[in-house]
Amino acid sequence: MNNIPNNNHRGGWGSRLGFVLAAAGSAVGLGNIWGFPTAVAQNGGGGFVLVYILCILLVALPVMLAEMVIGRAGERNPVGAMKHLKPGTPWYWIGVLGVVTGFVILSFYSVIAGWTVYYFIQAAGGALVVPEGVEDTAGYFGGLFGEMIANPGYEILFVAIFMLMTILIVAAGVRKGIERAVKIMMPMLAILLLALILRSVTLDGAGEGVRFYLIPNIEALNARAVTLALGQAFFSMSLGMGVMITYGSYLSKDECLPSSAGYVVATDSIIAILAGLIVFPVIFFMVAAHGVPLENLVAAGAGLVFVVFPQIMGELPGGDAATVLFGSAFFLLLVLAALTSAVSLLEVVVAHFVDDWKLPRKKAAWSAGVIIFFLAIPSALSFGAVGWLSEGGLLGISVFDLLYTLTFQIFLPLGALGLALFVGWGWGLEHASEEIRHSTPDFRLEKAWHIMIRYVAPVAIIVILLNQIHAILFG
Ligand code: TRP
Predict the structure, then answer these.
(1) Listed residue (119, 186, 121) closest to 344, CA to CA
(2) How many C-beta atoms lie closer than 10 Å to residue 159's C-beta?
(3) Which of 89, 243, 266, 391 has its Cβ near the most Cβ atoms within 10 Å?
(4) Cα 220 from Cα 232, distance rounded (Å)
(5) Is 43 a residue whose pLDDT tops 90?
(6) Which domains does the chain show, CATH number per domain?
(7) What is the average pLDDT across 299-321?
(8) Number of C-alpha atoms within 13 angstroms, CB side, residue 462?
(9) How far is the CA of 31 from the centre of ligand 1 (A)?
(10) Handedness of CA 229, 372, 414, 456 (dihedral sign)
(11) Mean pLDDT lowest among 3-17, 83-97, 440-454, 455-469
(12) Coil, strand, or helix at residue 291?
């Protein structure tokens, strides 16, 4: 079975670098640049970072490898791959959950991504330069943000623009679309990130910010923080819904899987940790310059990126030019990070349509993309633009929060659990190892990986899931 060449009609990566960049592009997203630093700030700084690294080594890395193995052996999208590897069994429902999760995540992810496009255009056009005479910059930028989220026209327009870019890349194919896009966008992302770090760490108060970020505060570490760390790790590494299955299915049979998984995990973790070096100096600059209480800034959530950041951009030494430059670089970084992630989410759905429904790629990309665009509208309007969709409306919480919580806290851990059980117990470790050894004869961590995927990962995920459900039910 190992010698069957890749199903060439489905397309495939031109090189291993293309695959690793695409997988890293999927992993590096809003979850790294905004989600990780906020999670660290809210959960005791460096201690959270340590727990996070543990979660990665014990659970995320093994699951990442498991997904890649399923993909390359199954040579299909998550549903098709599991049907192919374990025909006539219900395991493929884990793949179905993955495809559904892809729809849902992309529907709310594209809303925030749309905001970043809007802010990029605003920043490049000089709108982050505070007009003469405005004293209350927090109020000023709060107003800008409020105007955007309360305006259904803007919201829907920018989701549409973002989805259009995503669809065009996916429709162009694996090699000519996705691979080509990530080969341009990932180096740009790295350069922007480094430039922004340099600017941030040289701000007043930066040292204190970095210290707060990296020095562990063990007291703040509770069970809830550990739960969050694992959820964050899955989301940030794009695990639990078959992105890596799908991307792995386009990989040739002679590329080494364990080291590929290692590169992706390392890139994602390093970028998440580096993103903190942009965010924390900015937070402490605000604390030092304006006496804004740290807790307020940390609790700001979306406001941190869309209100606090623009505020500091307006105060940079170097005048208006610095504001325009730093502002557009920061939001372009977010746009690129979001776009390479959205592409992977759409690709899972598209691969399912192409493999299992026999749709041509272009048709699949456009139909899935347009459906997701319509699904995104309720989320987009749930920040106050339409009352009954928003917080305190029909559902109590906003549609956005509902979908986010559901996927982040339930669907992704459930999917990751299913995938670990599939490889550890369903399909079987012997088959998985055989697939890995085909290209990596000296797979040295084999025993450790078996233990992780069979016991450690499932037990950890079950504990976390119970904790999540408990927290959702009892607050
Ligand atoms: N990993 C991305 C981020 O950090 C988001 C993402 C892309 C994702 N594809 C995914 C999350 C699949 C979960 C599953 O922002």
Answers:
(1) 186
(2) 26
(3) 243
(4) 17
(5) no
(6) 16-474 (1.20.1740)
(7) 81
(8) 9
(9) 7
(10) negative
(11) 3-17
(12) coil
